[in-house]
Amino acid sequence: MITLTINEKEVTLDKPVSILEAARQAGIKIPTLCYHEALKPYGGCRLCVVEVERMPRLQSACTLMAADGMVVTTESEVISKVRRGILEFLLINHPLDCPYCDKAGECELQDLVNKYGPTVGRYKEEKRKVPESHKDQILARNMERCVVCTRCVRMCNDVQGASAITIIGRGDRSRMEPFSSASFNCEYCGNCLTVCPVGAILSRLYIHSFRPWQVDKEVETICSYCGVGCSLVVQVRDDSIKRVIPEMGLGVNKGLLCSRGRFGYEYINSRERLKTPLVKKNGRLEESTWSEALNLVAEKLSEIKKGEGGSAIAGIASPRCSNEDNYAFQKFMRMVCGSNNIDSVSRTGFAAAQKFFEALLGQGITANIIEGLKNSEVIFVVGGDPTSVNPILGLSIREASRRGAKIIVLGNAKGLDRFKNVQVIPPVFKDVDALEELLAGVSRVKGVRGEKLDIDQGIRALSEKYSEKMSLDGLEELKYALLDSPSTSIVFGMDLVQRANGHRAIFAVAGLTYLLEARLYLLSDRPNEQGLIDVGCVPDMLPGGRPLNIHDFKTKFETAWGGSIPDKDGVTLLEIIEGARNNDIKALYIMGENPVFNLPDGPFIKDALGSLDFLVVQDIFLTETAEIADVVLPALGWSEKSGTYTNLERRIQLQKKAVNASSGMEDWKIISEVSGKMGYKMAYSEVEDIMDEIAEVSPLYRDLSYREIAKGNCLWPYHGEPLRGEIHELPAMAESAGNYGSDFYLALEKPLFHSGTLSRRSQALMKICPEPTLKISGAAAEKLGMQDGDRVKVSTSTGSSEVSVSIDESIKDNRVLLSNNFEGRGVFSLLTYKLDPVTKAPGIEGCEVEIQKG
Amino acid sequence: MEKFLLKNIENPDSADINEYLKAGGYKSLSKALGIEPKDVVEEVKNSGLRGRGGAGFPTAMKWKFAMADPKFPKYLICNADEGEPGTFKDRPILEKNPHLLIEGMLISGYALGSEFGYIYLRGEYPDANDILNGAIKQAYEKNYLGDNILGKGVKFHLSVHQGAGAYICGEETALIESIEGKKGQPRNKPPFPVNVGAWSMPTIVNNVETLSNLPYIIEIGGEAYSKIGSNECPGPKLFSISGHVERPGVYELPMGISLKDIIYNHAGGIKNNAKLKAVIPGGISTPVLPPDSIDCAMDFVSMPKAGSMLGSGAVIVMDDSVCMVKVTHRALKFFEHESCGKCVPCREGTDWLRKILERMESGKGTEGDIELLLDIAGNMSGKTFCPLGDGAAGVVTAMIKHFRDEFEEHIKNKKCSLADSY
User: What ipTM goes with this model?
Assistant: First the structure.
């Protein structure tokens, strides 16, 4: 216990903190400028100086630790004069352009001067001139307004870990500049913007478009991009989003954001948004009315159900839609269309992995708090780069590294290059074997646990398969890092699920999780992949993860829903597509998804969907898939509707409506309209009614309500009953694939700045990253005689595309990477797949590619 | 007085290890290695040695703080970033007597249990860099540096780190930042470098001259050493004398010698018998003294009583051809240029002061400028992150205190009456 006196008030502290913090605890505010709660103290602005008895000089409260018996004064004549003097110093070269500066109204300097500052200027000399820089497309820099508090630099170095900016120059020539000079070459997280106290760094997305006091509504909501589910605040004026900002300390992200979350909101105001329902007439989509379109959908689906049976109908749900939308969707498919053929593109990764992991290790195995990563001693990253797929989760790994955790990586994870301790890059497409070998090695030292006999048996089989001597350099070191760790987290990306034998990777990771008693995190690139599974948008499970083939569960839901659910499990995503191609599936209802673009072998997918009798797409844009639909229904997007998302740690969060859409309807509402027309009434008057129903019918969500969720701590297993019970027999594991001897293989890149359909309609993200590039290794560039920026033609067995190349030194094997984000140039149109027999995820492996100078 | 620090420097080959050995060099090291490290510290404590970098902190006390910290490795850094205007006292040691410094660092390293030393060398001393590296190479060859020094199982490695020309890197925490490869800016204290220094390890930063005194202390014993010069700050001291004196240069004199004695006896008095106008006794950051205040003892304790500070012992002598406004302006130009920019009062204050002084010197001073200068200096003094800003403010305050009429004259006459005198 530390007891000190501040302004004659006795303050008792439980743990040592700075004088500044101690004063705040006692309700005494000390003015600051360079201090920021998310950053280490700096002591540069000197505004927080206080008098401390028996100390000769004034002390900066942010850097001085409170000690027992200290007597501190935070306000006095002397201190006021100092603060006035400091503010005067800050103003002498300041342009005093508040009437023009976007920061006015929320400027810390302005507020401080208002309170403590001089009222008249005494400066007669010439001011320093630094022209405002608009060389960057996103961030404007005005270094005349800069107070050199270095909050941006400390944020960039110490929290974001990007180290992209610094203070160049010295003394009064000090100014912030990116290392890349004029424009930024960084992760565009914009966290520097958050911490800038003045108008020195501004977002060009909203510069000169509004004043902070003109914001008429602030809505605290959840980001729509990835599975982390960051909290953010949407600021609205005149029913239009002016700005998206984080709030310090709030939510999973605690005030940090990534490029997509901060700058990617503009798609919602895109002029390409669907405005009216479209109906195909004479081979062309034409504008229609809601009643015509909805009637047609109801009519056609009823007809096909009657003629072909419910199993001829399938539905593709969306990990971008809310739990409520998805719940209504699966209920509609099961109860109204009479089909369990419900799946989503999550089957290409997260849903496939999640299902097998839970089968092996039990429901809830991936429900681990992201924050917990920071306290791990070892973090094992495999199957993708967390800093680009789930950037904010990636920051926790960087933070753990700063705290001394060992970061070990199998495969590539570029964003961790400066943070990793051990990295092993297996030969091309041999990562799965390396993982198995690692598990075998670990089990050889550690033995098996004897708790799960099937897994033990599987691990023993691997120990026999691999010899004691590890085949790859570094794998031994990796093994001992894992064995020596008292607290391990495993972060598993979906790259290895999308392999022809992805189930082996999942088993190996599950084995490691089990042997090391590790915390498992699955990377998730859509906001509601977990929620979609939990509310039953999978072919074999009802809401709450209840298996359809367990009679009791089925009848419970039938009673609750008032009807009958088909007995047979439905088929998975790519089986649906293949079913469409084979004419087993006649009608497909797609909600918020773009399979033609988002699934591998685009030409095949398009062809398959083209052979359907009836295709309904409900979306916010006329996507590649919507273009070939028979009916297109305009939906509402993020910020236009409310609902809940379940993030990758299984936290349920509220996403709130912030603006009114000019057209379109909530997804659940469209579904319930069609349902009603098909003779099954869904009695929801608002979205909350759906959550109330979910809480009633699903044992996992017992007693859940929006009020509860709004508290922000709605964590697994809620008040519900997780399903206990695991696999009884391991599926047969595939053999190791042969060697890949071709020159180059094409693979999917998951970039930081894009997600696809939405991000390509966000102007800011398009400015940051305007076009796809083929990422090739330095060795490949040399072999091909190519340089950064060269135009090339990339050809595979399914097609070709023209892009420029970009050399990426983090690629160490003979893969070349292309993203799947840009219209007409997505890598999926060039890749073929092979279905994983266990997970039913499309395996993308060994796609030979030819690269020619264009 | 017998010279110790500058012993043998007339010998053109004084930097060569063989010449150094011939003159009795490295004997103190052998002697030190023959006694317990704690006894070496005790000798240093008894000697009363105070740091020669400017602050005059008792050396043995600093060492004890570092030794009390259980963390290893401990780093020993020699501060050879001699950048204070007027100061060039370490240069003869670095260029003429490098082995004395190396021997001093070895003794210090042995006493502290430090096995790694760095010499942070002023970037503008390229010759010293070559000489020091040559000397270090020789010392390795003769087994005075390495893993088993003189077969006694003592390890010490030493290398030179060249600065890049920033004055602030003479401040020990900024120096450490710079050694770590970062931008030279001071760190928060506490924690002090003795606990959390280079690469977060206990680090002792001592000045060249301080370390170079160690062989002498070991040679003659702490007790005998403490009898040299002033009671409270004993030992020999190097004074670098520049400006309007007959014989500028570096003088090794006992601590506590009178400033007047230095100027008039050792440096030969004012050049061309001109009239003395002002003396800056310890480098540009120390307050200026008028002629009637120079009969004072040059040591860390006496100088504050005389209204200034010993600083680095860099005596700058000015005759009556010198315009004090111009001197002040030139000093502030230096401080403005060297301000690291970390804290507001120093970054902005030095710039503002410099601009006003520039205006004054060019005849554009206005009524109230002197009060403004004093007020700005007051807003800086004691409020800056490190002493650089205090120094800048102190120059202005002292100059106005002693030469206010000259400042007033500039404003009144709208020109500098001495502008053409040099």
Answer: 0.95
